[in-house]
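Design job #97: recover the sequence.
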């Protein structure tokens, strides 16, 4: 084999090895951004002046919220629907849109907290939870 052919093979092997090494160093664990960071199952508790209970929701890729809230003193479970924005603004309603309870809050990647209000019945309070 000629010296130039050997040198060419060594250079090709070097550049191939270097490119493999560099590609393996790329960090695929970058934090997710937007709504994607909130996708999953969330649960927690709420409490207030008269009512208290638990809640659980699922957030999907488009920011849609669906789940349930269960009132301890009323022994009833209500459907929860709403949306979350890419910056973590949480807006949901438990029960009907006209007489239900509104939950507003702010999500981080692992926790959420906010306030709730049912104006039709004069109820309000705070709520919090975590991503499962």
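Job complete. Output follows.
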């Amino acid at each position: 084999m000629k010296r130039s052919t050997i040198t060419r093979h060594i250079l090709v092997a070097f550049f191939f090895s270097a490119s493999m090494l560099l590609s393996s160093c790329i960090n695929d664990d970058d934090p997710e951004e937007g709504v994607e960071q909130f996708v999953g199952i969330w649960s927690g508790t709420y409490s207030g002046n008269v009512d208290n209970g638990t809640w659980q929701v699922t957030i999907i890729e488009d920011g849609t919220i669906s789940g349930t809230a269960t009132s301890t003193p009323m022994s009833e479970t209500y459907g929860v629907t709403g949306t979350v924005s890419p910056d973590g603004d949480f807006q949901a309603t438990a029960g009907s849109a006209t007489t239900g309870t509104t939950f507003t809050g702010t999500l981080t990647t692992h926790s959420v907290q906010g306030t709730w209000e049912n104006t039709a019945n004069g109820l309000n309070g705070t709520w919090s939870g975590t991503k499962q």
